[in-house]
Design brief:
The complex is a heterodimer of chains A (881) and B (220). By secondary structure, chain A is of the alpha+beta class. Chain A contains 23 helices and 38 strands. Helix content of chain A is 36%, strand content 26%. In chain A, helix 12 runs antiparallel to helix 15. Chain B has 220 residues and is of the alpha+beta class. Chain B is 27% helix and 37% strand. Chain B has 5 helices and 11 strands, in the order H-E-E-E-E-E-H-E-E-E-E-H-H-E-H-E. The chains are: A alpha+beta (881), B alpha+beta (220). The interface between A and B is medium-sized, with 34 and 31 residues.
């Protein structure tokens, strides 16, 4: 009895209170050091506030205060302030303990427009299981022991699914395995391909397989699966392997030379024609301006981009307004698809088409641009890529022709709309009318032909193609003002005179003019200096000189050329000078701004080629006539004739192929004639059309299954950075399986199929329903005026009490918390993205203290009253002597 | 004296602590009104709601009038001041698949083409994201029908994640409503420049309060 009494007095005494206070102080000191050393709040919290010993200390305080009060028994009036103070303290402590055991602390993720009533409880670990064809999902909480490891427990769910926790790792890294899994590369529908390591870049790279993609008669693609430490070298080796360089004469299109690319690349510097392949590749940016450059006698001549809008076009490195060189350069190779894994285990899909265009897509650490879920994930997930290669030809020649066709279309549209043409084009139009030639075809053919001469004006000694002779013989300069004629003639004479010097160095126009005592050189130099920063400086000087000649044409003496006796080539040369005065040259007129636009033009052109070939076949005797002539005949056809129907069918097919529903639906001969006049390409472009099946072929879409791969690693001291990994044995009546799962901290990642797709499973925090549904209307970051610095973050919410079905509309912000009548508090934690480029996602911290209103706050009030009473009543004041 | 100084300290401390509280921008006071979508197999669901200022005149299509033609607005509003009128039209464009959706930039390009002359320096297109929609806001000042006109337009579509949820919902019983919910939306206000500039903030508040009545479902 005595010892009980001593224990009672000890528990209610000052010594016990001091022990408790000292212990708590030590806890907090150590906790502060832990947080400072590990940078981990969670680590410190686990040691202090979340430690069971800390809860015991709180109980100790409760007992100490309770016994300290009861020790005063029997109570007297003077004990009232003391008792009130202690009652307040007890109420506060009871509130703290009630919150510790029954409170809620978690976070809620919301997207604008959606809502939730579930919060994610921090530091909880659960297995989420969903059964196929069932609306319900179950969550099984995993318990940790005092060392922080999970209990090896067996979980059974009502469907006889049994899960046994086999292993636990405190930390792991996880990535998604995509195209390469272990020692093989996988493409759905193809045999797994063995991966070969690239050890020596000099050796021929081994092929892993072959496949046809577009259709059974399509090209055979070479498939490679390689593991390499030097991506760029491997890519260059792959590109050069089996590729050929073809050099053609632009006028006759005859093949001059065909050499293996790897041989051409190995030629020493200073060789007549030296090629250099540049395939810069980085994991983040992928291919960066890959190109083939050609130098002749150490001087850069030509650049061939291998991707983007200008892919495969032969870009002349002399002033681009001079057009192309007299020869063209093409690459031919078997199409190739390579799956490459680099030293960082990033996977890259690389493709080279048969014309040498390059394409790539990188899967860095399994980061995916596309994810396909089959049967909501129960049948697994795949990632997918679409190769941007078509079944019809898209080589250099087709690209150039497609661009020219686009120009012809623009001219035809301009004529149809009655748009006024530039005077030199009007002159050519009149000549075409006289010679019964199609104006748009003639103009385009001339501009294309001039573009291959690599000179500022059309050289009078270069023969014109036969289809242009008629029109250029009919050019009538009488309608043109005499001073314009003089300017054209003088332009011709001047450029003829300086051409030999210019040919040596086309960039040095001003120098050449100076040496030839050009009287207006000072004005040219001044203008040139003013445009020093301009990227088009070289061309600018040529344009300026042409304009000078035209400006001075009134005072120039007459050269007295007999216009009527001039050869068509000379006429063409004069017209080119006139066209230059209006900045009309092929290089100024047609450019595709993006790869998509170029692809669209190619599709349009190839479909038009097919249409032209179809109409040639239908119209029989009119085969090879110009679009306007064929259109004139179509307009005379009766509505219901078989020929009209055949033509309508071809034009409708063209409309479908280019995705134009209006053209796909026209039936009337007049409308058909209009469409034919606009879209049929020039007769020489109707040869070797693509097949109809080329347009029907589906795009090349490659898919591969994805699954997670985890690697257990040493845990970090900063617990927030750790992702635990568990290994589970799962089985039901029919099947069993072992699998590893990494912790999905946000509970929003993929759920993985198990037991042949009967269940989905995810290792995640525990979600807990609260009696409030929160819907996010909109979230916003408010910046300081004229700044991108945030001033405040706000979110408009609708908070519905599910018990009473009543709701409030509330805007919460950084320092503006919403608190419900029963103690749920909603804090805005984060908003992403901070701008208006995507649907915003917010994180709300939800906190619930069940005893706040009936223990903690009243306790604080009672305590305050007790302290006040201590001051007022002064119960322990010694009476004055 | 000491008693008073303690009180002053206590009051000052209270004032300082009170100053930490910051009130968010006050929400718009007008009540929400519901807007019905287009006909779907004989049904017309109330799909949207928006805060409409009390001075605006609302014009709903007649119940017997078919709204299958997407050039017809699902709801119109008029702001009349003297002889001048601002017309605000809401259109929606349902789609079966994500690739059928009209890019917001295409709608903006169409609005730009409606001008006979557009003043580039006074026109702008900015991204928008609110209430689950993302898209573009267009402001254009120029000439339409030979009159100085200002257009404010919002071309909106649901975020991809929301679209996917409404495209393949777990609860198939609401699939008709979900098709309407995932439709692209345009809100276009046009009228005389002076009146539009006066009402610009009001129209912007109206547009940004536009939302779906039903919450977009999510998957845990």
């Amino acid at each position: 009895m005595k010892s009980l009494r001593s224990l009672y007095h000890f528990l209610g005494g000052i010594r016990f209170a001091l022990i408790l206070i000292t212990t708590v102080a030590l806890f907090v000191i150590v906790g502060t050091f832990i947080e400072s050393l590990t940078q981990s709040h969670r680590y410190a919290a686990l040691f202090t506030y979340d430690n069971p010993l800390f809860a015991a200390l709180l109980w100790g305080f409760f007992i100490n205060i309770l016994f300290a009060a009861t020790r005063r028994w029997p109570f007297k009036q003077k004990h009232l302030p003391f008792l009130t103070t202690h009652l307040g303290l007890l109420m506060i402590l009871a509130g703290v303990l009630a919150k510790h055991y029954f409170g809620v602390q978690g976070s809620m993720s919301l997207l604008e427009g959606s809502g939730s009533q579930e919060i994610m409880e921090t530091d909880t670990y659960a297995i989420h299981v969903e059964k196929k064809n069932s609306d319900t999902s179950l969550c099984y909480l995993l318990h940790k022991d005092w060392k922080g490891a999970f209990h090896s427990e067996v979980i059974k769910n009502p469907d006889d699914l049994t899960m046994r926790l086999a292993k636990f790792y405190p930390h792991c890294t996880e990535h998604l395995a995509t195209w390469i899994k272990g020692s093989h590369a996988f493409i759905n529908g193809l045999k797994p391909m063995p991966i070969y390591p690239v050890t020596n870049q000099e050796d021929e790279l081994p092929i892993s397989g072959k496949a046809r993609f577009h259709h059974p008669e399509g090209d055979v693609w070479e498939l490679y699966a390689l593991r390499t430490e030097d991506l760029e070298k491997t890519l260059a080796k792959l590109y050069a392997q089996n590729a050929y360089l073809e050099i053609r004469d632009r006028f006759s299109n005859k093949l001059i030379a065909k050499q293996p690319l790897h041989q051409q690349l190995q030629l020493p510097d200073g060789t007549l024609l030296k090629c250099h392949l540049s395939l810069p590749f980085s994991t983040l940016e992928e291919f960066q301006h890959p190109c083939l450059t050609v130098t002749a006698n150490t001087q850069l001549q030509m650049l061939v981009p291998l991707n983007e809008a200008q892919a495969l076009l032969n870009l002349n490195h002399t002033p681009s307004q001079f057009g192309n060189l007299s020869w063209s350069l093409d690459i031919s190779r078997p199409p190739l698809l390579a799956i490459l894994e680099d030293e960082f285990e990033d996977v890259h899909l690389i493709a080279f088409d048969k014309d040498g265009k390059v394409w790539s897509e990188s899967f860095r650490k399994g980061n995916l641009d596309s994810l396909v879920a089959y049967d909501d994930g129960f049948a697994g997930y795949t990632t997918r890529v679409e190769l941007p290669f078509t079944s019809y030809k898209t080589g250099r020649q087709e690209r150039e022709e497609a661009l020219n066709y686009q120009l012809a279309l623009q001219l035809r549209q301009a004529l149809a709309d009655g748009t006024e043409l530039a005077p030199p084009l009007q002159m050519l139009q009149h000549a075409c009318l006289k010679s019964h030639a199609d104006f748009s075809d003639t103009a385009t053919a001339f501009l294309a032909h001039w573009n291959t001469t690599n000179s500022w004006l059309y050289p009078a000694d270069t023969p014109l193609p036969s289809q242009l002779i008629g029109a250029f013989s009919q050019l009538d300069w009488k309608q043109t003002p005499p001073h314009i004629q003089r300017a054209c003639e003088w332009s011709l004479k001047l450029f003829e005179h300086i051409h030999p010097e210019l040919k040596k160095n086309p960039d040095d126009l001003l120098g050449v003019l100076k040496r030839n005592h050009w009287p207006l050189i000072e004005a040219l130099e001044t203008e040139s200096a003013q445009n020093k920063g301009s990227t088009n400086k070289k061309n600018f000087n040529y344009s300026l000189l042409t304009l000078q000649l035209f400006a001075a044409s009134e005072i120039l003496p007459n050269l007295s050329l007999d216009q009527e006796a001039l050869k068509p080539e000379m006429q063409a040369s004069l017209l080119s000078a006139y066209l230059r005065a209006y900045d009309i040259h092929l290089s100024d007129m047609i450019q595709a701004s993006s790869p998509q636009e170029m692809n669209q033009r190619l599709l349009h052109y190839q479909a038009a080629k097919l249409l032209g070939a179809h109409l040639d076949l239908i119209l029989g005797p009119l085969k090879g006539l110009s679009a306007s002539q064929q259109a004139a005949f179509i307009a005379t056809l009766p509505n219901d004739s078989a020929t009209t129907k055949e033509i309508a069918s071809s034009i409708n097919l063209f409309g479908e192929q280019i995705g134009n529903p209006k053209i796909a639906a026209i039936k009337e001969p007049t409308q058909l004639a209009k469409a034919a006049a606009l879209y049929i390409p020039a007769p020489e472009n109707r040869l070797s059309p693509p097949l109809k099946s080329d347009f029907d072929s589906p795009p090349i879409v490659l898919e591969t299954m994805i699954f997670p791969v985890q690697k257990a690693t040493l845990p970090s001291k900063k617990l927030e950075d750790n992702f635990p990994k568990i290994t589970l044995h799962v089985n039901n009546k029919q099947r069993s399986q072992s699998l590893s799962l990494a912790y999905e901290r946000t509970g929003s990642g993929l759920k993985w199929p198990i037991l042949d797709g009967e269940y989905l499973i995810r290792f995640q925090p525990q979600f807990k329903a609260i009696p409030y549904r929160v819907r996010l209307r909109q979230a916003r970051q408010i910046n300081y005026a004229n700044s991108s610095q945030p001033y405040s973050f706000e979110s408009d919410l609708i908070i519905t009490d599910l018990r009473s079905n009543s709701y409030v509309e509330k805007t919460i912000s950084m320092n503006n918390v919403h608190e419900t009548w029963d103690g749920y508090r909603f804090y805005l934690s984060s908003i992403a993205p901070p701008n208006e480029t995507a649907v915003k996602h917010i994180q709300i911290i939800v906190n619930y203290d069940p005893a706040k209103y009936w223990l903690t706050y009243p306790g604080a009030l009672v305590l305050s009253c007790g302290i006040l009473m201590l001051f007022i009543m002064r119960p322990y004041r010694r009476p004055k002597p | 004296m000491i008693r008073y100084s303690n009180m002053i300290v206590a009051i000052s401390l209270s004032l300082i602590l009170c100053a930490c509280t910051e009130n968010p921008s006050s929400p718009v006071a007008f009540p929400m009104q519901e807007i019905k979508g287009r006909d779907y197999e004989g049904k017309r669901f109330a799909v949207y709601r928006v805060r409409i200022p009390s001075s605006w005149i609302r014009k709903d299509p007649l119940p017997e009038e078919s709204l299958k033609d997407t050039t017809k607005a699902i709801c119109e509003f008029l702001i009349i001041k003297g002889p001048e009128t601002i017309r605000i039209a809401i259109h929606n464009f349902a789609s079966e698949n994500a690739d059928q959706r009209i890019p917001p930039s295409a709608q903006v390009a169409r609005w730009q083409r409606q001008f006979e002359f557009l003043i580039p320096s006074e026109s702008m297109t900015v991204p928008q994201a609110f209430n689950g929609f993302i898209g573009l806001k267009f402001k254009g000042i120029g000439q339409v029908n030979q009159a100085e006109t200002m257009v404010l337009g919002w071309s909106l579509q649901l975020g991809n994640e929301h679209y996917r949820m409404l495209k393949s919902p777990r609860n198939l019983s609401n699939s008709d409503l979900y098709k309407e919910m995932r439709a692209d939306v345009t809100i276009k206000a046009s009228g005389p420049k002076a009146l539009m500039e006066e009402k610009e903030a009001e129209i912007a508040r109206f547009a940004r309060s536009f939302e779906l009545i039903e919450e977009i479902p999510t998957r845990s």
